Amino acid sequence: MKKHYDPSHWVIRDYEEFLLQERGLGPPTVNQYLCPVRRFLAYRFGNRRIQLKTIRPHDVTGFVLHDSSERGRASLQTATTAIRSFLGFLFQRSQTVVNMTTVVPAVAGWRESELPRFLEKAQVKRLLRNCDRRRKIGKRDFAILLLMARLGLRAGEVARLSLEQIKWKTAELEICGKGAQVDRLPLLQDVGAAIADYLQKARPNCSCRHVFLRANRPFQEVAGPSAISLIVRRTLKRAGLNPPHQGAHLFRHSLATWMLRDGASLSEIGQVLRHRLNKTTEVYAKVDLAALRALAQSWPGGAR
């Protein structure tokens, strides 16, 4: 089998070393930075030889505009932060002629300016049905999507999940979340059955201790949150669903929205999603439009 050539390999390797050793960032954060940088290099150079000194400001702004059409606000903010860091790294190493960190467009950060993105329950069921569980990759994707839909796991948490984190005897999952926070979540019966089906019948036999592996050799863990989001987008397309935002976070938003509609308090939703700050959960109050209408006061002189 012909090995795929990645022209950005050496650039990514040097930048990764910089983030780990000089910036002191942890592997999950480093991976969040590397994914947008890979997209930027692919956008600018494709499969051609990478010549960093040829990067110009219009390449940067063009990429951000291109990327914004496929991502939500939070994801785009992460991407622009990563690109700004990468451009600063290149200038510091004299690999670009000018410092282009200031040309990266800022992404508005108004937390309350948009409604959470979500799918209806019937749409999620339709999505899950489009995982072909007769195939090994379908068993893997089904287990991944079910973990996010039923437990609200983040993409990175799914990608990092190890075999040791599954506590079969106590029916629990040990999840390493943001800020090195460790939580124990119930291993729901349908989730446990999906994971067991994948482990027993589809997961390649190898030394890697991550639960979810790439479908092709060499068998390694899936390539971080971006790979999980790719599975989501691919399955949405097969299901004929085209929501405006198609990242893995769609499932956390959906779960929170369903809980709110079923009468759960914001505090309860925050506990399930493991939010450390109440304001993180408050955005979901906006989706309960019926309750908001009941609280709305009549406008003086307006229609009654």
Explain the overall architecture.
With 304 residues, the chain is mainly alpha-helical. It has helices at 9-22, 27-45, 57-68, 73-92, 121-129, 136-151, 155-160, 189-201, 224-238, 249-261, 266-273, 278-282, 289-295; strands at 166-167, 172-176, 182-186. The protein has 2 domains: 9-109, DNA polymerase, domain 1 (Orthogonal Bundle), CATH 1.10.150; 121-286, Intergrase catalytic core (hpI Integrase, Chain A, Orthogonal Bundle). It is 52% helix and 4% strand. Strands 1-2-3 form a 3-stranded antiparallel β-sheet, with no helix packed on it. The longest helix has 20 residues, at 73-92.
- At the third CATH level, what is the topology name of the largest domain? hpI Integrase, Chain A
- The number of helical runs is 13
Q: Report Rg.
A: 21 Å
Count the domains: 2
CATH C-level class of the largest domain is: Mainly Alpha
Residue share in helix: 40-55%
Percent range for β-strand residues: under 5%
Number of strands: 3
C-alpha geometry: globular
Largest sheet: 3 strands, antiparallel
In CATH, the homologous superfamily of the largest domain goes by the name Intergrase catalytic core
What is the CATH architecture assignment of the largest domain? Orthogonal Bundle
The low-pLDDT segments are 1-5, 289-297
**Spatial order of the strands forming the largest sheet:** 1-2-3
The termini sit apart by 72 Å
